[in-house]
Amino acid sequence: MKIKIIGLAAVAAMALTSISASSAAAKACSATLSSGEACGGTYGFVYTGTLEASLKAGTSFTFTATNSSGQSISTITCTTSTLKGSVTGSTGVGSINAMTLANCSSAMCANAMSFTTTASATNLWPIQVTTGTPPNGTLAIEKFDMEMICGTLLGNITCRYTSAKVMGTVGGGAPAHVTATTVPLATVSGPEAVCGSKADWSATYVVTNPKSLYLT
């Protein structure tokens, strides 16, 4: 019996170690640096500083609102979007201080529309990058919150959406890419007929600063 208990404890410890390792905070590295803490291989050195990204050329930010019956109410596409923030490369922790969306269109919002987000210098969205198989990994953004103004034939309608945490994948490279696929958001306010009971968005961003970014 004692041997069995010890064996089970060892298995549990190994499982916990595996889980911890698979979700370990990543180091953010860049080959644009010429000194600092080395990351190994061709990944350059640990990067701490500004992060900037914009939509991948030829793609769109796609936003779909769905009602409580699971029916799609509207699909919105924005051809311009940017992200700005910063990261501490040694811990993979940082924040988003701006997210913009522009040139958006939708059949539902035929009389013009706009998106705004709450990310700002005084309301940072925390981020955490975690490593997968270097140079790739994941990006988690907390406090994600956005507002949409939809111009309908009956006037402007405001919809607000939020999520405690949204996830995306990071493809390390020169440049790196961040891809979010069908990210769920909860509808906080606004009529379901226009705003839906929930929404999902997808987008692929190219990291423009730094010029190269790898997760190790």
What does this structure look like?
This protein has 216 residues and is mainly β. It has one domain. It has two helices and 13 strands, in the order αβββββββββββαββ. A hairpin with a 2-residue loop joins β9 and β10. The chain is elongated, with a radius of gyration of 20 Å.
Features:
single chain, 216 residues, three-stranded antiparallel sheet, 13 strands, ten-stranded antiparallel sheet, 2 helices
Describe the secondary-structure layout.
Layout: H1 2-22, E1 28-30, E2 45-46, E3 48-55, E4 61-66, E5 72-88, E6 93-105, E7 113-117, E8 125-131, E9 137-152, E10 155-171, E11 177-189, H2 192-195, E12 198-209, E13 214-215
Antiparallel strand pairs: 1-2, 1-13, 3-5, 3-12, 4-5, 4-12, 5-6, 6-8, 7-9, 8-9, 9-10, 10-11, 11-12
Can you tell me the overall shape? elongated
State the secondary-structure class. mainly beta
Number of strands: 13
Beginning-to-end CA distance, first to last residue: 42 Å
Sheet of most strands: 10 strands, antiparallel
Which band does the percent of strand residues land in?
Answer: over 45%
**Topology order in helix (H) and strand (E) letters:** HEEEEEEEEEEEHEE
- Alpha-carbon Rg, integer: 20 Å
Which regions have little confidence, pLDDT < 50, spanning 5+ residues?
Answer: 1-22
Tally of individual domains:
1
Oligomer: single chain
Number of helices: 2
Return the average pLDDT rounded to an integer: 90
Tell me roughly what share of residues is in helical segments.
10-25%
Please outline what is shown here.
By secondary structure, the chain is mostly beta strands. About 10% of the residues lie in helices and about 55% in strands.
